[in-house]
From TrEMBL:
Pfam families: DUF1285_C, DUF1285_N. Coiled coil: none annotated. It comes from Pseudomonas cuatrocienegasensis. InterPro entries: DUF1285, DUF1285_beta_roll_sf, DUF1285_C, DUF1285_N. This is Proteophosphoglycan. Residues 22-88, 89-184 form the DUF1285 domain.
Length: 189
């Protein structure tokens, strides 16, 4: 498919087993260039500059996405195309809190309805961007693909935050999930 090919051609190549995500990590097809597809920071997918309105189509595209180095690609068994991602390819839009204290489990839902629990396999981190005067919180969704944690969900995490002295002696506020402590920010003096 050329870079001007249709997204529907790419979708037609996706094997459908009905169980789990396609094994994109096993597919190594030829790179066919970039297509005009972009994921905005708010999680909106665009094709040819127009938002993709059908959530089922966005979910299908997201199921064949992977990150190779700094590049995001959509992969089928026969071809691979590059796409643009403004920040992270997913947004964590909902949070469910199960339990409390160090036994607490934080269950997130992404904008494409993937559900995952923060922990060793799905670590959280908070970055500071020089161009924004606000924290940028992320959680790993799968492989090396992250979700930006939506502002409302981050506020929920801040409400759950507890202090902890880290190994380097600094006091941080953070949250527990899956037996792991995830720092959010330094504890105020």
């Amino acid at each position: 498919m050329s870079s001007t090919g249709k997204a529907s051609d790419l979708l037609a190549q996706i094997p459908r087993s009905g169980k789990g995500l396609p094994p994109v990590h096993l597919w190594n097809p030829r790179f066919c260039g970039h297509i005009d597809m972009r994921i905005a920071r708010d999680g909106t997918w665009y094709y040819l500059g127009t938002p993709i309105g059908r959530k089922s189509m966005v979910k299908l595209f997201s199921s064949i996405m992977r990150r190779d180095g700094d590049n995001y690609v959509l992969v089928t068994p026969v071809e691979m195309v590059g796409i643009q991602v403004d920040d992270a390819p997913f947004v964590a839009v909902a949070l469910e809190v199960l339990g409390d204290g160090e036994q607490q489990l934080l269950r997130f839902t992404s904008n494409v309805d993937e559900v995952f629990d923060a922990g060793v396999d799905h670590p959280m981190r908070v970055e500071s961007h020089p161009d924004r005067d606000e924290p940028a919180p992320y959680i790993r969704v799968r492989s090396n693909l992250d979700a930006l944690i939506h502002r409302n969900v981050f506020y929920q995490l801040v409400d759950l935050a507890v202090p902890k002295v880290l190994e380097d002696g600094r006091r941080w506020l953070g949250v527990w999930s899956g037996g792991e402590f995830f720092p959010i920010g330094p504890e105020p003096d």
